[in-house]
Design goal:
The protein is mainly alpha-helical. It has helices at about 5-15, 25-30, 35-50, 55-80, 85-105. It contains five helices and no strands. The protein is elongated. It starts with a helix and ends in an 8-residue tail after the last helix.
């Protein structure tokens, strides 16, 4: 794996080869370090976290999702016993979302 500073240097060098960059963009890129980039990404992430309606809704639904995970095995049994299969369709969809959410934390802002 390429160390982060080396990766940044390689990327910056490749972008500086672009003829479409203005002199202002070149100066900005030359003065930027990998630490500056990481700091800016953190600021953007924090700003997004504060303004995101989806994140706010999901954080308020988190206790409900944890409760569903706890009673999930019981609901699995009930859905298997449903003679019409409607509960199986509904609970299966909810269960899929819970499993994806718990196994892929990166998608937690989506679900």
């Amino acid at each position: 794996m390429i160390p982060p500073n080396d990766a940044w240097t390689i990327t910056k060098t490749n972008y500086l080869k672009d003829d479409d960059l203005s002199s202002e963009e070149r100066d900005m890129l030359n003065s930027c370090s990998s630490k500056d980039l990481i700091d800016e990404m953190k600021r953007m992430e924090n700003r997004h976290a504060q303004d995101s309606k989806t994140r706010n809704i999901m954080s308020s639904l988190q206790p409900f999702a944890q409760t569903l995970r706890k009673i999930g095995p019981a609901l699995d049994t009930f859905s298997n016993a449903d003679p019409h299969g409607i509960m199986s369709l509904v609970w299966g969809s909810v269960r899929l979302i819970l499993v994806v959410h718990s196994t892929r934390p990166r998608f937690s802002c989506v679900f």
